Amino acid sequence: MICNELKQITQNNQAKETYENIEEKSKAYFSAYLKDPNNYFYFFTDEFEKQLNELLSLDISKEEKERIDALTLSLKIYKEQNHHLRIQLMKNNLMKVYSNWENKKNLFKYGAFHLAKGESLLNVYDLGNLVNNIADSKFENSLHIIVLGKSGTQASPFKGFPDETIDENSNNLKPFELLLNNVTTDQWHCFDMSPLRTALYNGKVVVNNTKLEKIIKGYDYVIVIPEVTAAKFLVF
Q1: Which helix (H) or strand (E) holds 201?
Q2: Hey, CA dihedral for 174, 179, 185, 186, is it positive or negative?
Q3: What is the pTM of this model?
Q4: Of 14, 75, 142, 226, which is most buried, counting CB atoms within 10 Å of its CB?
Q5: Distance between CA 157 and CA 161 in Å, rounded?
Q6: Alpha carbon separation from 76 to 15, 43, 68, 126 (Å, rounded)
Q7: Which of 18, 5, 7, 12 is nearest to 51 (CA)?
Q8: Distances in Å between the alpha carbon of 134 and those of 75, 125, 229?
Q9: Per residue in 155-207, pLDDT tens?
């Protein structure tokens, strides 16, 4: 999609040919992936990385270079599985538009593990920590909410792939076990973490599980939906 856009604006014929080549091969690789997930995207090939480097050596516009630099950084993140660099990029992108949300009431909707006030469950100081610190510097507070499905299904990221069954004993949900065990009806549950957090800071409760401690400190409310249903792809 990005190369499809860039080929419309470039004034460099060689760059246009490269954009078209990337677009065609990306479609072919993705089609093969949908048929067999053991195949991988063109994005991960050495040829794609070589093409990005070649594009940067050409006489192209500032916008093109910025987009290709961004692709190069994304390639580094996913090839190296560098989660910290990924979070750095997300925070950098958020701060680029800081003037749009500075001193306003804002709603940030991200994957819930990104939004803890302190260190996240993925062992990095993420977007939630950034927003919390900015609010704190303004003598204000930020409200951090995580929404979980205890059971049911969640959608695959690709059309045609089967829905995934939610397992409350999975690595992602296991840290919430003490809360999930209290969800025994079909009603939504909202757990207020502030009393637990106060008790924890005052030494009235002891938590030996590091991840549970991060949940208590990182979120104001934990909302649990007993059973969720996978979202469906739109049909046009």
Answers
A1: helix 194-201
A2: negative
A3: 0.87
A4: 142
A5: 8
A6: 22, 11, 12, 19
A7: 18
A8: 30, 13, 35
A9: 888 888 889 999 999 999 999 999 999 999 999 999 999 999 999 999 999 99
